[in-house]
Amino acid sequence: MVFEDILAPLMEAQYGLQCVVLADTEGEMVAQAEIESAAADSAALFGAHQGVILMHVTAAGVDACSGDVEELHIRCEHEDWFVFPVTTEYYLALAGYHGVQIGRARLKIRQCVRQLEIEINA
Fold first, then answer.
1. Number of CB atoms found within 10 A of residue 24's CB
2. DSSP H or E segment with residue 119
3. Distance between CA atoms of 88 and 44, rounded to whole angstroms?
4. pTM of the predicted protein model
5. How far apart are CA 101 and CA 69, in angstroms?
6. Nearest CA to 8 among 94, 81, 75, 90?
7. Could you tell me which of 51, 61, 47 has the C-alpha nearest to residue 96?
8. What domains can you pick out in the chain, each with its CATH number?
9. Averaged in consecutive runs of 10 residues, what is the pLDDT profile of the chain (122 residues)?
10. Cα–Cα distance measured from residue 98 to residue 73, given in angstroms and rounded to the nearest whole number
């Protein structure tokens, strides 16, 4: 299955997401799905760099005996970002305007993460 095909259902549902990015921990974008807008490219680029933050938070969590990071929420002035580890080398970053219905989207996101993990490890 193609990565974009796995990401597409997140954008098709009415959760309020604007951009979904699959990237590696070096900040290289692997795949994306987004609603067309003038800011889509910059949002995708920003999403591709969330892995740096995720790696630092994960390391701090391990040092503090908190365990692995399952989800990271970054609130910016104009949007909210949510970062979900897929493997130790890949993560999923999603952006939505304030008020994004992340609670409703969580099941679909977790399904997407599992599908991506299977595809990456295949």
1. 16
2. helix 102-121
3. 20
4. 0.82
5. 21
6. 94
7. 47
8. 3-121 (3.30.450.30)
9. 86 83 85 70 73 76 70 86 90 85 85 94 86
10. 12
